[in-house]
Design brief:
Layout (H helix, E strand, L loop, with lengths): L5 E9 L5 E10 L4 E5 L6 H8 L7 E6 L2 E2 L4 H6 L1 E4 L11 H11 L6 H10 L15 H13 L5 E5 L7 H16 L3 E5 L3 H7 L2 E6 L2 E7 H8 L1 E8 L16 E2 L5 E7 L10 H10 L4 E8 L2 H11 L2
Parallel strand pairs: 3-8, 3-9, 6-7, 7-8
Antiparallel strand pairs: 1-2, 1-4, 4-5, 9-10, 11-13, 11-14, 12-13
Amino acid sequence: MQDPIIRINGVGKTYEGGFEALRRVDLEIRRGEIFALLGPNGAGKTTLISVICGLVSPSSGDIRVAGHDTITQYRAARKLIGLVPQELTSEAFETVWNTVSFSRGLFGRPPSPAHIEKVLRALSLWDKRNNRLMTLSGGMKRRVLIAKALSHEPRVLFLDEPTAGVDVALRREMWGVVRRLREDGVTIILTTHYIEEAEEMADRIGVINHGEVVLVEEKTALIQKLGRKQLTLQLHTPLSRVPDALAPFDLTLADDGATLKYTYDAAAREEGEHGIAALLSALKTAGIRVKDLNTRQSSLEDIFVDLIEERA
């Protein structure tokens, strides 16, 4: 496997007053992946990004970006990073073209009108290149932030709540932009409150809570491993109660008596004495006829809520 592009070893951050924002974080980000960092407000997501980008000094531990130490080799490390912050801060009277070009110069990169044009076209900003930022919509201003972050051709892009306050259509359009960046070899790390954003785009998921990374997993493996399934059974004849013979399955009977629900661990109960086959056999033995059935896999949001509640 390729060397990780980011290595985080034992990173902690304690602010004046004693607040511990990060607690011995160990994390590796792979080259070319989309990594989603999930966590509730105040979990440490933005602090971790700020430490990696050199905006905040860690209290302990070390971070390397493509082998460059973010403290002792700050310039080399920072040149590889693009950061799109949460806040829509901008130079109101400046044009889109000028502000993006200026950002490139801040990183010591020579002028490259061709690259700036490529970035603006990719973000559907080319037609707005001569517009002042104050005239743009909130969604367009957020695209400008991404363009600024990409102006110096970074290999790692941090997106801190990239689609907060953006409508659904624009959010999906921006997901497309992120995928194209990944295809160009850019490593993407995003924090998000929108679980569907992580479910749609991420290769791997990290969950942070109270300053600790509590889980890192491939997205599909995470859903398979921790996901629950719910089997809904529509009955031919309503029941007044669940028969005693079915008690081991911990079924829930709907108020109308015509629907049974069975929630089970997808990994542990596909087979065995409490699996679906055993349940259907028990129903038949009890003389209960099933008219229809369907299953539902738990979403990443269900899993995330469970993880946070477990570790609260």
